[in-house]
Amino acid sequence: MQKRPELIALFTDFGVGSHYLGQLKARLIAERVTQPVIDLCSDAPAFNPRASAYLLESFLPYMPPASLFVSVVDPGVGSDRRALLVKDDRFWFLGPDNGLLARVVARRKAVEIQTVELPEVTARSRTFDGRDFFAPAAALVCQGRPVPGQPVFRDSLVGADWPEELAEVIYLDSYGNAVTGLSGRGLSDDLCLRAGGRTLPHAETFSSVSPGTLFWYVNANGLVEIAASRANAAKQLGLTIGTSVAWGD
Amino acid sequence: MQKRPELIALFTDFGVGSHYLGQLKARLIAERVTQPVIDLCSDAPAFNPRASAYLLESFLPYMPPASLFVSVVDPGVGSDRRALLVKDDRFWFLGPDNGLLARVVARRKAVEIQTVELPEVTARSRTFDGRDFFAPAAALVCQGRPVPGQPVFRDSLVGADWPEELAEVIYLDSYGNAVTGLSGRGLSDDLCLRAGGRTLPHAETFSSVSPGTLFWYVNANGLVEIAASRANAAKQLGLTIGTSVAWGD
Amino acid sequence: MQKRPELIALFTDFGVGSHYLGQLKARLIAERVTQPVIDLCSDAPAFNPRASAYLLESFLPYMPPASLFVSVVDPGVGSDRRALLVKDDRFWFLGPDNGLLARVVARRKAVEIQTVELPEVTARSRTFDGRDFFAPAAALVCQGRPVPGQPVFRDSLVGADWPEELAEVIYLDSYGNAVTGLSGRGLSDDLCLRAGGRTLPHAETFSSVSPGTLFWYVNANGLVEIAASRANAAKQLGLTIGTSVAWGD
After folding, report:
1. Which of A85, A122, A173, B42 has the fewest CB neighbours in a 10 Å radius?
2. Residue B57, SS3 per DSSP
3. Measuring CA to CA, which residue among A182, A184, A175 is closest to residue A218?
């Protein structure tokens, strides 16, 4: 395993424009972190660690080794929910124990999991753990220093019992494409997907259908996605985060 | 005092996605600036230096020493409004003299203030001072070179007479939380805040109330903020930038 | 000519917040690219290489030498449209052959143009060439290594026959300003611009008219732009990408 991260990837529901990402980054700089920091995803489903967990999982195959994911979708901030550090031979993950890391733990076989306990950070009235807690924790990891905490059993994690796949919309992108939590592996092109009252055929890619046509395809991160060529599928079908989808005619 | 900035923090109303931030950063690179640049806030209240001034002030305690703030909320760009450089033992600030820097000047006791005069930049038909004026000025500061200009008296700044606090909404974030210009220091938890026709109780943090509940709390930057647990408070209350708030029953 | 780029500028319709920009950047880091990367524009007109081409062209005079533009507005991704590398004594450009680079080729006199052929990248089911194709191609350019491909004649490019100017709205920014594809060079201030059923006078800059006033001006990138002082011109006039404009009374 790499001793230290070579990249920090921020996975959050902070949105863009506001000061949340900026203050988190300023804190990393204040802590003398020198690794490059990228905004991997800043509009993960807000307040929704479950949908976010499946989205985060789908990104793993395309991330460089020695990436540290700072993952903050955290409606329970300020409560006594645990904070976690997960590591294996390829990645590190920091995040709240609310299910957000459940899918990456399930996917990665041999992981070490521990709580993160930073006594100098006051527990009360914390509403911005991204800046005040996870950023200094990330700095410890980046500097190869020990992170205080206790070992955690894999089965004790929130979300440890979640299914392999989620037959729901878990993300809407700016084009109006709707990502589902369904794996795209080994699917027949003959399958049809039902969503928003419609039955959608498969297409290989956007340019293989005429403009406006609705279809499903396996997206660039391996998940089943509902899209339209040069049009907004989510709007046409009335899809939102959590909308159910199903295979069938 | 540090001789040179170690970090450039951009505080603007440029929005995200468009080329404004990108062109400003390209200009910094063209000027051989090597300090890290972060987007501290890119959706400061548009055309509104007054609300923006209180927001910027609230960020100071959480920024690393030796930060240079390039601050551009500048509806008067192209007019003869002055450009300012403010510095003290901790920070540098560049921005227009339209009130945007008034609150940081008020908060920081011993500051040096000067105009910024870059004769090579044509005054007429300037509409993008962020790129064409403040970026080269920032490069001078970053390189420890003198910045041409005249000393300015603190009391002559636009906004020098603005109050310590603003009983208004000064910012809406992507979750729908509404930040006010009221300081959170020394407030009793028994206080109620009136906003949007409703009277809101205090809560410590998001997870201490049930989903949907409206409340006020002291946000992570020390300001009074109106929020709802896992819901959009601004939409529910009809709050916009400038909406008045008041303590009371 | 510089041997290697000193800056990577991303020009895309990916939007912000989503994982598209982040995954592209992660891939650049995985490929050991060390040049700084900036988001030059992330909300280029979606699915619209033609409008995007004129916007990209307008940015060139303000970019540092030795910039590499990674340009992805690519509704035909996955089809057999060619991928291009364009270079001259100042810039490199990577992008699809769908017109997106047509205007920069027209503007730059002596350019070399070639296809980009990366055999190891599978052609089928590619839907994210930004990450999977253009990022590794950019890495080759950044490392000064040869990029596999064939020479391309300038006249064979999609968009080679497009006009010098476009009397249409090609971009809407977050303030509601509407950029047109009309050059601002040599225009009389007496001209009026017709757009959205209104006839708009010229103004030098935002601060030279009263709040709310609609006007046209030559924007900071040399294009004719429709704006209102401290207000949203596009909304007031009902302008969208593609809306025609014309000089006249």
Report:
1. A122
2. helix
3. A184
Which chain A residues are within 8 Å of C81, Cβ to Cβ? 207
According to DSSP, the residues that pair with A72 across neighbouring strands are A12
pLDDT digits (tens, 9 = 90+) for C82-112: 999 999 999 999 999 999 999 999 998 889 9
Indicate whether this complex's ipTM tops 0.90: yes
Tell me the whole-structure pTM to 2 decimals. 0.96
CA-based nearest distance A97→chain C, Å: 23
B81, with CB counted inside 10 A (0-12, 13-18, 19+), is middle
* Phi/psi-derived region of residue C240, left when phi > 0, alpha when psi is between -120 and 50, beta in every other case: beta
Spell out the SS3 assignment of B77-119.
Answer: CCCCCCEEEEECCCEEEEEECCCCCHHHHHHCCCCEEEECCCC
Flag whether residue B174 sits within 8 Å of chain A, measured between CB atoms: yes
Beta bridge partner(s), residue C37: C8
Q: Give the largest Cα separation in chain C, rounded.
A: 59
Please name the member of A36, A175, A205 whose beta carbon is closest to the beta carbon of C125.
A205
Specify the amino acid at residue A236: Q
Instruction: Please tell me the distance from the alpha carbon of residue A75 to that of residue A169, in angstroms, as a whole number.
Output: 20
Residue A109 banded pLDDT, cuts 50, 70, 90: confident
Q: Would an 8 Å CB–CB cutoff place A170 in contact with chain C?
A: no
- A212 burial via Cβ count (<10 Å: 0-12, 13-18, 19+): exposed
Contact B23 C40 (CB under 8 A): yes
Cα-based distances in Å from C109 to A128, C97, C105, C154? 52, 18, 7, 11
Q: Is C139 helix (H, G, I), strand (E, B) or coil?
A: helix
Residue C61 to residues A198, B31, B118, C65, Cα–Cα distance (Å): 49, 15, 20, 10
Q: How far apart are CA C60 and CA C54, in angstroms?
A: 11
Which tokens in the block code for residue A194? 């039902």
Strand order in the sheet with A91-96: A37-41, A7-12, A67-72, A91-96, A83-87, A112-115
Give bridge partners of residue B216 from the DSSP assignment: B202, B226
Give the residues across from B25 on adjacent strands.
Answer: none
* Phi, psi torsion values for C54, nearest 5 degrees: -70, -35
pLDDT digits (tens, 9 = 90+) for A191-215: 999 999 999 999 988 888 898 899 9
C193, C194, C196, C201 alpha-carbon torsion, rounded to 10°: 40
Cβ–Cβ gap B204/A124 under 8 Å = yes
Look at C78 and A38 and tell me if their CB atoms are within 8 Å. Answer: no
Best mutation site among A6, A38, A43, A185 for testing chain C: the one with the most C CBs within 10 Å? Answer: A38
Total residue length of chain A: 249
For testing contact with chain B, the best of A8, A10, A19 (most B CBs within 10 A)? A19
The answer, for A207 touching chain C at a CB cutoff of 8 Å, is yes
Q: C38: which chain B residues are within 8 Å (Cβ-Cβ)?
A: 22, 25-26, 29
Q: How far, in Å, CA of B5 to CA of C210, rounded?
A: 38
Identify any residues that bridge with A200 across adjacent strands, giving them in sequence order.
Answer: A193
